[in-house]
Amino acid sequence: MPVFAAPSITGVSGSFVHGQTATISGSDFGTKSQAFPVVWDDCQGDDPLDLWDRIYNRDSGTDYILDYRTPSEVGRGVSTAHNNATKYMAGCFYPGGTPYLGSNVGVWKERSGVTGTNYMYISWYERLDPSWSWNLGTIADNNYKIVRLAYGDGENAIFYFENNTGGSYAFSNGFHITDFVTGNGRYYGYPVIDFRNRWIKFELEAKIDNSGYVKVWANGIMAMDYSDDFLYSEDTMNYIIMLGSYARDSGADTQWKYYNDIYLDYTLQRVIIGNAPSLSECTTFREIQIPLSWSDNSITVTANEGSASHGTAYLYVFDETGTANEEGYPITIGNSDITPPASPSGLIVS
Question: I need a labelling partner for 237 at 20 to 30 A (CA). Which of 17, 133, 197, 287 fits?
């Protein structure tokens, strides 16, 4: 394996104001053949199929199919993940019936024709309706799929990452991962999250081969770190990435799911801003930035403030191994004062 030096940031030009561009200077960023991610979905568009290959409950009625909606259009008292979004992507596990009708809600992207190391990185905001019920149906499993990888028609699973709330089919309560290729993987990290009362910022990083791993962060806290001879088959270079999928508790109009700011890429190279000078302490916010160009010593991004507060934040660049600069580079988010100075008074020019 080649040895890589950690990225080093030496300067920033431009402005980290939402929607504006900034350029990061430094060294050991590596090269990235496609700077822009595979998907950047801020959920402010008109049709998810402009970015995704399939909507998972596409056969549901128009009132429940996953779509971009404003909070008033949904009408269930759920605000967007942050003030920089006016819409989210929302759908409901209703009316039930076949998996496509009501047991699945989500979107998927088909990964094909990609060569090199088989990496994946995805980050997103997710929450459930405040009236979501964990007591529907006859099987006390209550599993809730968060991310699924599969191949073929989507029914041949590579792995599930899910949130189990207990019951006869759960080995323990918490985050659960199952590898269907080797039969390995009963991993539990992190306690069960109640999605009903808050947004969760997820990040999932995976290497999908016979030395694979999966790492998951929830609100900046490491929630899973699993590795094994895992996630590997001859089919895994071409697969389907499903954000969302199945929920055991379905078939009621309370079972709404909400998303904001979905970022998907097939490399570990990324740029984030966090709230602390140490990456492990960035648990208030970790916001992905959208790269427009990328070279070993310069990256230009479109600023994504997300939930970040205006003021001082810290910048991190990740290289192709997923290694970031050890200390965050301080920047200023937003304009603290854009009011022009007042005209001078009492000034006499002679």
Answer: 287
**Closest of 225, 217, 207, 223 to residue 322, by C-alpha:** 207
CB atoms closer than 10 angstroms to residue 113: 7
Per-position pLDDT tens, the chain of length 350: 555 689 999 999 999 999 999 999 999 999 999 999 999 999 999 999 999 999 988 888 889 999 999 999 999 999 999 999 999 999 999 987 776 677 889 999 998 877 767 899 999 999 999 999 887 866 656 678 888 888 777 767 777 787 765 544 433 456 777 766 666 556 666 666 778 889 999 999 988 877 788 899 999 998 888 876 555 555 556 788 999 988 888 889 999 999 999 999 999 999 999 999 999 999 999 999 999 999 999 999 999 999 999 999 999 999 999 999 999 999 999 863 333 445 555 545 44
CATH classification at residue 326: 2.60.40.10
Which residue, 236, 245, 260, is CA-closest to 43? 260
Contact criterion met (CB below 8 Å) for 44 and 85: yes
Integer Cα distance of 17 and 348 in angstroms: 39
317: which 2 tokens?
């660049």
Instruction: Give the end of a domain, one of 207, 237, 268.
Output: 268
Q: Which residue blocks in 1-70 are alpha helix, DSSP H? A: none
Read off the CATH number of the domain in which 184 is found: 2.60.120.200
Q: Which residue has the tokens 């402009």?
A: 50
The span from the CA of 214 to the CA of 228, in Å, is 9
d(CA 113, CA 111): 7
Backbone dihedral angles phi then psi of residue 39, each to the nearest 5 degrees:
-140, 130
Expressed as residue numbers, the domain containing 161 is 39-268
Based on the fold, state whether residues 321 and 181 are members of the same structural domain: no
What distance in Å separates the CA atoms of residue 205 and residue 191, rounded to the nearest whole number?
A: 19
**Which of 268, 290, 311 represents a domain boundary (last residue)?**
268
